[in-house]
Amino acid sequence: MTSVNTTGADAPSRTTGSTAATPLAPGAGATASGGPRPAPGTLTQLFFDAVEKYNRPDALQVKVGGSFQPISHRTVAERVRRTALGLRALGVNSGDRVAILSENRPEWAIADYACLTACLTDVPIYPTLPAEQITYVLQDSGAVAMFVSTEGQAAKIEAIRDQLPALKHVITFAPTKVPGSDLTLAEVEERGRAAETPEIVERYKRDALAVKPDDIATLIYTSGTTGNPKGVMLMHDNLVSNVRGAMNLGIITTGNEVALSFLPLSHVLQRMADYLCFATGTSIAYAESVDTVPLNIQEVRPTIVFSVPRLYEKMYARVLENALAGGGLKKRIFFWARGVADKWADEKLAGREPGGFLAFRYRIAQRLVFSKLQARTGGRLRYFVSGGAPLAAFQHSGIRSLEFT
Fold this sequence. Notes:
This protein is of the alpha/beta class. It has two domains: 45-287, Rossmann fold; 308-401, no CATH class. It contains 14 helices and 15 strands. A hairpin with a 2-residue loop joins strand 3 (60-64) and strand 4 (67-71). Helix 2 packs across helix 6 (185-195) and helix 12 packs across helix 13 (356-375). It is globular and about 70 Å long. 44% of the residues are buried.
């Protein structure tokens, strides 16, 4: 397994409190590093290309009734189209803002792609935020509609609805309408299905593909620790340039990978990661929650995981804690294996293939220690990807030496 540390965005974005500023053109004022800058692109093109190219039966996965159930590319595309057409039937027009207040789940992706293909700008909101902090984001963005996941999230909006004159529609992911919501996602999809004709479907795709790389795809609000949150306007190409740059690294084998999605999709790292996975035909399995990641990772057996450095800090600390709590022999074996792996990692990072006695000792360390650690991640994990903040050198080398790399 290999660790990849990535921060920042290749294409520029703009941050503004009033979201009315004009974004920079793709590539303006920016110098790409790590090779030629990918050609400008759009998330709508990425979506349609992936559906046509892969058509996997398990584009997305969600745990239902105790096991992970697949959702095909074909089903995702159909639900996205019908949701987009359903939003139009509600009077949500091109350029309008639509908020998403939800935990990670397939409906998050469906709502997101529906907004993108309907030429809307979506506004992700952290599901952990209290109602009073959500108010400003909805007011400042001017959201005319929003998706909410559960009755609890809908209740937050119900408590502040009288402060949101622009908000016309609250759509819940719940199977039935809950207090604080106006419609269910299923009802919106049904409106879209009822509106479908061959001409309407053709026009929907044509309009979606007419989106420009420098059109605004999403508004992501900062935490607001130094005042009111600021709306960061990300263009389609801000995200596509990162996706294509990551694809050029060659760490994902197209159509053959499985990823576990658990960081909030309101966090741009996980969102970019999920776009990357969709673009490469990687099956995206949604963890039930952050707390269930250790269980879900063994159920899904992912080949790639994206997270922020804090997860790897905790993982490495847990491994060291277990080693120190073991008996004398167990402790000595662990630190011997760690020393061997340090040398192995040094060779690999220097671009050399370890051989001879070091390779022999490393195989023993694998059998005695690292194979057990790998089993806890499902046994297939090839990459941990760290982003959103710098990964400290000691964490990178420590995780890599433990073969969680």
